[in-house]
Amino acid sequence: MSAAEACPCGRARSYRACCGALHAGAPAPDPESLMRSRYSAFVRGNAAYLLSTWHASTRPLTLALDDPPPRWLGLEIKRTWRIDDHHAGVEFVARFRHGGGSAVRQHERSRFVLEAGRWFYLDGAG
Fold it and tell me: Where are the transmembrane segments (predicted)?
């Protein structure tokens, strides 16, 4: 598989078979998959997907992505946990670089909620 076909989320799958399916409307099977698909949406500049997977109680009205976009360098899932049948968390580190600047690490513990059979991003803390 070429780098252009690989999924940005870091799984050894093509974009089409991985996050691309979620971006096309398939529900994420678990919070980690949703987190990975959201990372891929940032990489691909897909603000509509980011908003659609953000829980209505915390979702902003609009989302302006950086222009020019950062260069995304990778995603590392540190751990996942279930709180109950409808709540879970994912701890991750995403790395990116703006222009020729130093790489930045975004370390977050995100919370997710399951509603009507779909996982949604709720919020995150650094």
Answer: none
Residues 4-27: tens digit of each pLDDT: 689 999 999 999 999 999 999 999
Q: Is residue 120 part of a domain?
A: yes
Q: According to the model, what pLDDT value does residue 11 have?
A: 95
Q: For residue 12, what are the CA distances in angstroms to 20, 46, 60, 122?
A: 13, 21, 32, 27
Q: Give residue for tokens 């997907």.
A: 49
Give the span between the Cα atoms of 100 and 105, in whole angstroms.
Answer: 15
How many separate domains does the chain show? 1
Domain that holds residue 108: 19-125
**0.90 surpassed by pTM:** yes
